Amino acid sequence: MTSAATPAYRRLTVEERRGQLLAVALGLFAHRAPEDVSLDDVAEAAGVSRPLVYRYFPGGKQQLYEAALRSNADALNRCFTEPSAGPPTERLGRVLDRYLAFVDEHGTGFSALLRGGSVAETSRTSAIVDEVRRAAAEQILVHLGVERPGPRFGMLVRTWIAAVEAASLIWLDEGKQPSARELRDWLVDHLVALLAATAASDAETAEVVKRLLAQETPEGPVATLARRVAPVLGGAARLL
Predict the structure, then answer these.
(1) How far is CA 180 from CA 31, 59, 101, 177, 184, in A?
(2) Exposure of 21 by Cβ count < 10 A (0-12 exposed, 13-18 middle, 19+ buried)?
(3) Four-residue CA torsion sign, 130, 64, 165, 84
């Protein structure tokens, strides 16, 4: 009786090994701050030696962290891509669903990335983070139908992105409460309210809001928010 054949060992290619080490590092950075992850941790988790990690990342931990950050930035950029069809607020809702799923999966690493102060932070890592913010702003402008925003509208978009980042960090700190769906809906409402408030004093924003309203539906986020705040605004009208 012959024994079962032992599976043949296959040596990983350079790209496969590099990809394996990067995947391991991404997993570690997702749950621990960059300064708390060492090359020994990466080597142990990957089941390889420390010199082997250096062979593929001769710049050491900094190079590995920047590669992991670049990988996460590319993943975040993909979150922002959404077909330009249907009501704008519903498109942004789907973008936020993907974004919050990413935040949920990469909690600790996401916090360390946005809060800064990491020993691994450099001008290169800061540039990668800024690139993600620019990509987010560009995609939001696409969904809002604005190609070259004026100063007020550009500030509106950047302000909302900052609010989304801050809300994400608070959400992580508070045990991911409320639910991701509730947070998503609130962030969409936040943008709608910001647009409405800015439209009252900025002609460009007022025109954008008119175009957006024409694309919304009676059951969508804008109409739902309007119905909810109508009683509050009715009470406030007595002060006028």
Answers:
(1) 19, 38, 8, 8, 6
(2) buried
(3) positive
Going by C-beta distance under 8 Å and a sequence separation of 6 or more, which residues neighbour residue 97?
A: 180, 184
What are the pLDDT digits (tens) for 147-195?
A: 899 999 999 999 999 999 999 989 988 999 999 999 999 999 999 999 9
Q: Tell me the CATH architecture of domain 68-215.
A: Orthogonal Bundle (1.10)
Token readout for 156 is 């509106």
Domain spans, the chain:
68-215
CA distance 125 to 132: 11
